[in-house]
Design goal:
The chain is α/β, with parallel strands linked by helices. It is 44% helix and 18% strand. It has helices spanning 20-30, 69-87, 105-114, 130-134, 141-156, 166-175, 200-205, 227-235, 252-262, 275-283, 304-311, 322-330, 340-352, 354-372, 374-389, and strands at 2-6, 34-41, 47-51, 54-60, 95-99, 120-124, 160-163, 181-183, 212-217, 241-246, 267-270, 287-290, 315-318, 334-336. Strands 3-4-2-1-5-6-7-8 form an eight-stranded mixed β-sheet, with helices on both faces. Helix 12 links the parallel strand 13 (315-318) and strand 14 (334-336). The radius of gyration is 21 Å and the shape is globular.
Length: 390
Amino acid sequence: MKVLYIHQYFKRPEDGGSLRSYHLARELVKSGVDVTMITAHNHSSRRRKIVAGIDVIYLPVKYGNEMNFGKRSRAFIRFMLLAILESTRHRQIDFCYVMTTPLSTGAIALFNKIILRRPYIFEVGDLWPKVPIEMGLIKAKWKQKLLAWFENRFYRNAKGLVGLSEPISNHLHSIAPRIPFQTVFNISDCGGFVPSDKKQVWIEKYQVQNQFVVSYTGTFGLANDLIQLVDFAKEVEGLPIKFMMVGNGAEKEKIRKKVDEIGLQDVQIFDAMDKTQLLEVINVSDAMMVSFAAYDSLHTGSPNKFFDALAAGKLVVANFRGWLGDLIESENCGIVAQSPEEYKQKIKTFIDDDKKLTTFQVNARKLAEHKFELKIQSKIQQDFIAQLFN
């Protein structure tokens, strides 16, 4: 079987970022599937590499988290057009596996079905266009209606639909009730993130001696609303808590400026790190933060940092509810705090009680191993593919 796998943000372990498509595509290769990945990179020309048995085609599309919405939209369209052209170069494809975001990848899928006669599975990680509409990024009614029309077409023409959370899968089914669907959760990399005692060399490197460390590793974007984390840090001044924020994005300088204006001494901000450095930060962390702005559509998502936190055996701190908030509380692996006062009250119990902290951290790792581990989720994906094409 030969699959054309399309994901604009395909990353290798050494690149940092989400490794979902890398892990799932690699497992397909191990099962005997011939996988060609179409993705993008910030170089000026098309390149081709074999990555862990995956034939990866890199298309020249400049993209960065620091881009505004308009520039991002242009990057999405450029990738869409180049990927459509690239897909015509490949022969004897049995089906396409197409990932969002962005929603515009659906046009690549639809082109392959209508013009090249290839069925496709459409995987949805965020509720586009609901997210940018709720956030006020797409205000014109005609644009909202047009994007909703495209969303319907992309889902209803799929051979199968994959959601990264149950709320997303339910949304897909509500729009395309006749199309088979499956939930394939994001991956907890239990091999790449292994719980371990804090190492003194890294405690000294990051100057976190005798501190309860809360880390955030990810995008500094509008959707993440990291001003809330700064507000939390302000509320707990005087407690032995250190905040470490790692990543890049359009809101980063705004966050840094607010930290400086308030004069917070216990917030450290770092640029994006490679995985080796990131593991150092995670090692000295007691808890990891998952942050989203107060939009319901965002709370249906499946953020990578949550699954990394579980695999690393860290207390999870979330500032929103939704399905993840419910899961965190039901599994006793973290806390949900939606105000600085609530945050202070809840986090203090773990600073004061090492035994409780350890229990919640162990629960986090168990949840990763028993529900979100790669072998579990890749089998669900492969069984769904077999159901559709055998």
